[in-house]
């Protein structure tokens, strides 16, 4: 809504027509707290809550917005994305979650990105579209990965609205006294079908995975795409590899004509039983190299389940970026730095992009905040860490408390006990005082740490600190911690 | 090459014949010298062989933390050219410390693998690529088969591979005695630093044990830890200290340009 948006604490409701009545269609969190629910007539809502802001619902605009969001998800997350009207998206993430470090990190990333854009989203991975739809809307957790094969028990307690049934059927079932999915699934089918039509059985079967449900993905605008139909369905890994080898050069030719390189490449395999398998590979830089793309795709063949055979293969460059020809450095001027981006891509497709990084300096005196992870191919930063104090090779993830005895206020410890071993300190450097970052957090306004580099009698060197300055109680607990180990 | 071997051409021919049988006849072995005469003279070729797998483990408590072993490897990697791939299963490397032995954070790409199998796969992939200066991996178990694969990958591409052997428990460290196909095997233990005339900690010192060297002999060295360019220094007792400047002079920081990958 841009500048015209009301403040977040004002209750807001969207109104629209339902039959001949004007009713509230959706409400925000503030309005929900007041007690307003969707379905209330507009006149009643206005009478009850005078400061309620009412706006007209725009279903067409919502649908277009969702489609845009679906395309964005297709670029970033998974190859098969469709709009799950009116308020959701459905993704087939099989073959794409490895790029995000697994299913749970992928969901967290999605919800986090949506939160960054100002949306509160819920994300669920389940065996079927129906189950995921139900859990995302009526489950408790905002992020959940349902273990495979548990659909029936997880869905049993959810209300009937979760089943994507038209509201007359739900009302009809409510008069029969059925309000949960579990009891409904246990009822005999024939009388239900006679009274309510085939919808109930279909939706139940879809949710439990007894019948398939195709996800018709959104299509990016005018992508580079090549496909191949097979007269006889194929299934062997070698055959798939051979046809990948035939499709990739065609795709690269298409990319070449447009001057583009691929960042996300999807291979969709349409099976004879009308299911679609998909694999996705990602690259750090735009790539148009036939050999490299073929290799990345072929490494993923083992994740494909060909079923009774594959009758059509489609290769789509879901995310393509402009790629310029580069002049190679002449050996006369300088020796060329070896290009490792192909290695990065190979490794990223094996361990995930998050697991591949460089460290970059952050301007902070607190050791645990003095670095951040940046992507392996990120442009090189110019800053560097200050070098006036030696830093330990290993930094413990969490400082470990040690028992120590030291003279106050600023002497290094005489001995300390770490993991049950008593070590006598032979010599030490310090203190190096580090203050809390009060501009980040009020609690850090007064705290201080005194770091010491100590060497024990056997020659092992450690990084210890005292939480506090040794004089003022408000600067910390004055306890000792071990934070790092020197080489 | 020491003086005696030049006197015996027969021995030289025999060596050439053996190396032909071993399958690397058409390649001149290139090495990365430590710049410390005592160490380089003990290593065949006069330095750490490039295009080979080396193993490093920490001694004593350092078998678990690999702080000294890690710093030793970072010092070696700092003296190579090109990017460095560093593969770990649990990340506890403190990046500013790598900078302090000359290995810039801009050169070091970390891979956090979830299992030992993934570590070995990434290790092999990195060695096979050939464009990296060094590939360092922290592994616990390294079987003969796995190390043989890594050694072959390093031989074909000419990359330097270093396996930091790091275990979860002290009892597992006995695994370091098992045979592997690595070319050299080192154990790095910390030694007390030299007492300074003022309060403070002096330059760290290590005991480097060369436990195994293919076509070479085992040896122990007492050295001073890597400096800001990744170079070790020989330990010289206080009494002989006046000769130090001469020993430090004229040592290369990095392997010379164009020394790498002279494959026929």
From TrEMBL, chain A:
Q: What is its EC number?
A: 2.7.7.7
Please state every residue range assigned to the domain named DUF6504: 404-484
One family name in Pfam for this protein: IMS
Output the GO biological process annotations, alphabetical, semicolon-separated. DNA repair
Catalyses:
DNA(n) + a 2'-deoxyribonucleoside 5'-triphosphate = DNA(n+1) + diphosphate
InterPro entries attached to this UniProt entry = DNA/RNA_pol_sf, DNA_pol_Y-fam_little_finger, DUF6504, SulA_CellDiv_inhibitor, UmuC
- Keywords annotated in UniProt: DNA damage
Q: From what superkingdom does this record's organism come?
A: Bacteria
- Where is the DNA polymerase Y-family little finger domain positioned along the sequence? 226-327
* An example Gene Ontology molecular-function term: damaged DNA binding
Give all residue intervals belonging to the UmuC domain.
9-113
Quaternary data:
Monomer.
Function comment:
Poorly processive, error-prone DNA polymerase involved in untargeted mutagenesis. Copies undamaged DNA at stalled replication forks, which arise in vivo from mismatched or misaligned primer ends. These misaligned primers can be extended by PolIV. Exhibits no 3'-5' exonuclease (proofreading) activity. May be involved in translesional synthesis, in conjunction with the beta clamp from PolIII.
Its recorded name reads DNA-directed DNA polymerase
What organism is recorded for this protein?
A: Acetobacter lovaniensis
From TrEMBL, chain B:
Which SUPFAM superfamilies has this protein been placed in?
P-loop containing nucleoside triphosphate hydrolases (SSF52540)
* InterPro entries hit by this protein: ImuA, P-loop_NTPase
Q: What is the protein named? A: Protein ImuA
């Amino acid at each position: 809504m841009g500048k015209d948006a009301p403040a977040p604490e004002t209750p807001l409701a969207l109104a629209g027509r339902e039959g001949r009545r004007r009713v509230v269609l959706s409400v925000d969190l503030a309005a929900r707290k007041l007690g307003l629910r969707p379905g209330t007539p507009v006149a009643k809502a206005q009478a009850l809550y005078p400061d309620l802001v009412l706006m007209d619902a725009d279903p067409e605009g919502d649908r277009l917005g969702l489609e845009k969001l679906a395309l964005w998800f297709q670029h970033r997350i998974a190859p098969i994305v469709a709009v799950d009207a009116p308020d959701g998206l459905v993704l087939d993430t099989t073959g794409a979650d490895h790029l995000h470090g697994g299913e749970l990190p992928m969901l967290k990333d999605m919800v986090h990105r949506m939160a960054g854009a100002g949306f509160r989203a819920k994300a669920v991975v389940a065996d079927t579209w129906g189950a995921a739809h139900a859990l995302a809307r009526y489950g408790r957790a905002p992020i959940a990965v349902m273990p495979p094969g548990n659909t029936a028990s997880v869905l049993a307690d959810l209300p009937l609205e979760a089943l994507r049934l038209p509201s007359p059927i739900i009302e009809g079932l409510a008069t029969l006294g059925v309000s949960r999915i579990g009891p409904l699934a246990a009822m005999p089918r024939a009388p239900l079908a006679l009274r309510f039509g085939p919808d109930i059985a279909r939706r139940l079967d879809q949710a439990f995975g007894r019948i398939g449900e195709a996800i018709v993905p959104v299509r990016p605008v005018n992508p580079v795409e090549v496909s191949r139909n097979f007269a006889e369905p194929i299934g062997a890994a070698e055959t798939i590899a051979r046809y990948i080898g035939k499709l990739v050069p065609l795709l690269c030719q298409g990319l070449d004509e447009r001057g583009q390189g691929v960042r996300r490449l999807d291979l969709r395999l349409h099976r004879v039983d009308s299911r679609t398998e998909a694999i996705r590979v990602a690259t750090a830089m735009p790539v148009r190299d036939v050999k490299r793309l073929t290799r990345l795709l072929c490494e993923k063949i083992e994740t494909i389940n060909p079923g009774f055979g594959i009758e059509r293969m489609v290769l789509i460059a879901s995310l393509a970026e402009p790629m310029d020809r580069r002049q190679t450095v002449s050996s006369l001027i300088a020796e060329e730095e070896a290009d490792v981006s192909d290695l990065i891509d190979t490794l990223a497709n094996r361990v995930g992009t998050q697991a591949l990084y460089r460290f970059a300096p952050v301007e902070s005196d607190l050791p645990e905040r003095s670095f951040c992870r940046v992507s392996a191919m990120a442009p090189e930063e110019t800053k560097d860490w200050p070098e006036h104090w030696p830093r330990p090779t290993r930094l413990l993830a969490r400082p470990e408390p040690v028992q120590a005895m030291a003279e106050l206020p600023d002497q290094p410890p005489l001995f300390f006990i770490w993991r049950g071993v008593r070590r006598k300190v032979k010599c030490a450097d310090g203190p190096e005082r580090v203050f809390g970052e009060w501009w980040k957090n009020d609690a850090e306004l007064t705290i201080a740490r005194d770091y010491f580099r100590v060497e024990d009698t056997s020659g092992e060197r450690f990084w210890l600190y005292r939480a506090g300055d040794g004089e003022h109680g408000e600067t910390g607990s004055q306890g000792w911690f071990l934070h790092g180990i020197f080489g | 090459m020491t003086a005696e071997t030049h006197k015996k051409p027969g021995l030289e021919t025999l060596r050439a014949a053996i190396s032909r049988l071993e399958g690397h006849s058409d390649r001149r072995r290139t090495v990365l010298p430590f710049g410390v005469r005592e160490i380089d003279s003990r290593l065949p070729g006069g330095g750490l062989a490039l295009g080979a797998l080396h193993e490093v483990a920490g001694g004593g408590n350092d078998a678990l933390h690999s702080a000294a072993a890690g710093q030793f490897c970072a010092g070696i990697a700092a003296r190579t050219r090109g990017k460095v791939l560093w593969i770990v299963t649990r990340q506890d490397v403190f990046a500013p410390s790598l900078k302090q032995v000359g290995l810039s954070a801009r050169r070091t790409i970390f891979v956090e693998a979830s299992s030992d199998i993934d570590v070995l796969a990434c290790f092999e992939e990195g060695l096979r690529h050939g464009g990296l200066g060094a590939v360092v991996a922290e592994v616990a178990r390294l079987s003969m088969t796995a190390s043989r694969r890594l050694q072959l990958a390093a031989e074909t591409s000419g990359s330097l591979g270093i396996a930091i052997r790091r275990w979860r428990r002290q009892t597992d460290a006995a695994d370091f005695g098992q045979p592997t196909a690595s070319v050299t095997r080192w154990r790095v233990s910390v030694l007390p630093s030299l007492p300074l005339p003022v309060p403070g900690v002096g330059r760290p010192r290590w005991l480097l044990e060369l436990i195994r060297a293919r076509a070479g002999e085992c040896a122990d060295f007492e050295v001073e830890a890597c400096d800001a360019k990744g170079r070790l220094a020989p330990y010289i007792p206080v009494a002989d200290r006046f000769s130090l400047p001469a020993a430090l002079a004229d040592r290369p920081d990095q392997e010379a340009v164009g020394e790498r990958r002279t494959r026929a």
